[in-house]
Amino acid sequence: MRVPSLREAGAEARLLLIGIPVLIWTLIPIYHMFLFAISPKQDAFAGKLWPDHPTLNNFRIVFNQQHYFLRDFWAQFGNSVVIAVAVGALTLVIATSAAFAISRLRVRGGRTVMNLALFTYFIPAAFLAVPMYRTMGNYGLLNNHWSLILAMVTIASPYAIWVLKQASDKLPLELDEAAIMDGATPLQLFRMVYVPLMLPSLVAVGTYALLLAWNEYLYAFLLLSKDTEITLPVALGNFLAADDSPWELLMTTGFIYALPPAAVYYVFRRYMVGGLTAGAVKS
Fold first, then answer.
1. How far apart are CA 50 and CA 32, in angstroms?
2. pTM of the model
3. From CA 73, how far away is CA 235, in angstroms rounded?
4. Which end of the chain is more exposed for a tag (fewer CB within 10 A), N or C?
């Protein structure tokens, strides 16, 4: 068995010295949230590492919507799911089609589209919130899920196009030429050659767009207002409107809301790094 050299051992030790504090720093807020979730209200601010009387009653209250701020919990959770899935799907359709046309079909003006897509990220998304609100108002989409879906697709698509285009450039052109010689149409080339080869990047980009919409607060707050139409992040903000906020229920709801993206990332984790960095280095 090969024995690591002193240099390799030193490099691993330095990584551990950096990684362990970062891991602890990352887990502390999650543990603090979980601690609130299993604590009775009177013990929530006791400052202990573990409550004297841990309970799951807070989860029961949330699931059964037994609090004023939680009366539409399941509707709001469902809104978040529908909007996030719709944003992920639409972003994938737009970005995949655009990247295919620019990278494989070499459509005229493709470079200009790529430069414009990159340019959009020089403008912070928060600066576009008011213009987006005005635009959605002009089209009568305010307080409609489509307003938030379209807004998030607008924000996610440029980055998705850029990533998929870079990954598409790595695919051998000989595959396209062979398919064309066999009589494949551009649509068949897209469906039978391009999509299967791009699957890791598609999964990564779709996950990125889904999680972006799942965690969005500003646009959701501006574009949606009805309690039955808002997403759960906006509903969580309502907890802070009370003089005596139920922090244990707020943390419980937040902990529940954090579980789906964690599960999505866990399922697709092997695609994330490879998919989002595909094409980053030219061969």
1. 10
2. 0.85
3. 8
4. N
